[in-house]
Each structure stands twice: as C-alpha cells, then as structure tokens.
Specification:
Length: about 200
C-alpha cells in the first residue's frame, strides 16, 4: 500500500481525504502519524503558492528526519468575494481575529445589493510524489454572502456563505463535503492518482 502524507492534523480534513481515496491502494497519513512538526511561513500570493510552500516544507522535513522521500500533499483555501475585489482571498485566515471573520465581512458588505454579493470558496492542492515531481489540483464552491450569520455546523465563514437558500453552517457534514471546494479539489487529485496508483 502506498503511503501519502497529508500536511495536516485536522481530523475533518483527514476523514474527507480518506473517504475519497478509500477505493485506491493508498493510506493517508497525518503529520502526527509520522511525528513531523512543520509550520512554514505561507507568504505566497496565491492559494497554489501557499499550498506549494507547505507541501515542499513537509516533503523536505520528512526527508531530513527519516532519510526517506514520501509523497505528500498540502492544501490552501479561502473565500473570494467579488464585491471586495476577491478579498479576503489568501488572507482569509488572517482577515479578522478568530471568531470575528463573519462580523467583519458582513460589516464590509452591508451596503452591497443582493445581486452583487457573489462569492466562492476556493481550494488549491499541491501534490509532490516520491521523486519530487509536483502537480496541482483545484476546486471551487460558488455561492453568495448572506445578510446575517445562520447555522452552527461550521467554522470560519460558513455561517454567512450561502449555497442556494442555506448557509454552509446549516448543512450536515456530508452535505457540505459533497459540494465543498476542498472536496472538489480532492476528487480532482483522486482522478490523477487513480491513474498512477490504481490497479
């Protein structure tokens, strides 16, 4: 079985990836599983750039610690709002103090009419194989910014990001995974890896 490291210890991200790759002869490992700590400065100008920085740092950290090159992948994602010229974008995690993201966004959007509130969650994944060759997969989830926070089953911008008549935070985990930007990017990566690691 091929072992691939996902650059995270986030249980939800790992569960989603493991479910998507379950049909392949691949075991998805977390950073904790391989006992590697690495927190590079993600100072890229794009989601792909940040994912690449993270993937390369983990790839090098594993090689340095164990002397073995392992396949790794990392993701970076965020919210892009059209009325804000794509902000918060790559700065989504640093846009406001934790827990205040939605309040700040609603404040900035208070005078924006309904037809101008379009937005999307975007995710880029960079995969580096055992030989150091890299490839990218990406996904997006289109929606709009609501007028108030709704729902409790989510984090970050989920309570204000509308898909249809519900926010992401009003959806179950399975509903969200089926349409999420990260899920779309993981499924694109799956199609690539199936050709390489599938039977």
């Amino acid at each position: 079985m091929t072992k691939i490291v996902m650059a995270t210890n986030n249980a939800n991200k790992l569960r989603e990836a493991r479910e998507i790759f379950s049909e392949l002869d691949i075991e998805i490992l977390s950073l904790k599983d391989i006992n590697v700590e690495c927190d590079p400065d993600e100072n890229g100008q794009t989601f792909k750039g940040n994912a690449g920085i993270k993937a390369k740092a983990i790839y090098n950290a594993i090689a340095e610690k164990s002397g073995v090159n392992m396949a790794v992948f990392a993701d970076d994602s965020g919210l892009c709002v059209d009325a804000l010229d794509g902000r918060p974008g790559v700065h989504s995690a640093r846009y406001a103090p934790k827990g205040q993201e939605c309040a700040k966004l609603l404040g900035e959007m208070k005078d924006v009419p309904a037809d101008k509130r379009t937005a999307r969650f975007v995710c880029s994944i960079v995969f580096i194989d055992e030989k150091g060759m890299s490839l990218e997969a990406s996904g997006a989830c289109e929606g709009s910014i609501g007028y108030e926070e709704k729902g409790t089953n989510g984090f970050g911008y989920d309570p204000v990001f509308m898909v249809g008549d519900r926010t992401m935070a009003e959806m179950s985990a399975d509903e969200k995974n089926a349409i999420s930007h990260r899920g779309a990017a993981l499924r694109e990566l799956y199609r690539v890896l199936k050709e390489r690691y599938g039977e």
